[in-house]
Here is the input.
Amino acid sequence: MFVIYSFLYFLAAALLLPFEYAKRPVALRKRWLKEKLGFIDLLPVTRQDSTLLWIHAVSMGEVISATPFIREIRKRYPAIRIIVSTITDTGQKVARERVADIADVVYLPFDLGFILKRVVGTIKPDAFITIETELWPNIFRICSQKRIPVLVMNGRLSDKSFKGYKRIRFFIKGVLQSVDMFGMQDETYAERIEDLGVERTRITVTGNFKFDTRPQNKLPEWSELLRGQVILAGSTHEGEEEIIVSVAARLGREIPGLTLILAPRHPERFAVVEERIRASSLPCIRSSEMTRWSAAKRREIVKNQEAGGSNLFSGTSVVILDSVGELASLYGICDVAVIGGSFIEHGGHNPLEPAFWGKPILCGPHMENFPFIGDFYREGAARESDTEGLYDHLKDLIQSPERRKAMGEKAKALHHKKAGAVDRAIAVLECHVKLSLPLSHKEPFS
Here is the structure.
């Protein structure tokens, strides 16, 4: 089956390569192609007595989740060498912003044996760690053959992935056999991995890194221009923006100065979302445009607001967040958070960022990707709403500071209660890799 997988993967990679290359920003193309083909330039490192960890996080969300894990490893073992690989450009950008001071950041090479044998043979990692159950058959197989531990950390297995893997159980079981240990987010995910044929002795529950994530407290300068109540709808998808914008427009007729910050999940949809909002006649602006405003212009807007205006525009305004990496910190200034991906059958997105800031959370009926959300509902830290009830829930919370505060405090307390996954994951790592070599025997990253 590995031969068939490799053949099909090779065909797909060859067919898609020109398109993938062309869609990259010009400045990234050369490095992307070079690293995808396995030609990775790393800073010089003394490999004798030096521990090197290769940590793979596919995209922005996984990088953000893995950041506290990566930084804590480096904090405890200052001389260790870390390579972080991603698939997406947004993952690269966020990784370079968050961990490039302590790790080499590269694109994951194509999952082809003839490429990976050279890469693994050159890098000689002491462990390959994949975040959130990203399965790469050839790199797992090659590392296993070379007796390099393969670890899954912050593991999860969504309903959709689980059903898909069960259909190819005969193949996936062989891939999973190459993994030395699965550190899963919760017992549900652990049971799913076991059901796919993994022995329970290779499965442990470590918790969710997202509970240990501390969003950067760095707000964009334009955020100081926001006045009145703020609703933040994060990581929205096709079919959700129209609903949320319609509800915000309706609320704005009753609540003057309301601002909706809308953060589409996929950057390629920014223009379409903007066009649709403008067609609804609501004032709309991109965050990137405000970022380019001069300090003088911002002062002028503030002056006009103080003279009687309460918002960026008259009436309800919509800000399209088209900047990568700002969503988590902006949850800190909103009054209510709406979780995207939950009003369609997508499974929802991360509700823990608003929980960290102590904000009330509204979710749609589809939060299957986050089983722990049930704890938030039971504790009164979040509410579930369908599209018909969204207006009533938002109106109730916007008009009730007491209820917003109570929900937010419960969300923050629950977030704090569930922390500790990073410590447990590092304990698992220490059982499989020798990390504690003396600092004098190492050459630290610089």
In short: The longest strand covers residues 230-236. The CA atoms of residues 56 and 85 lie 5 Å apart.
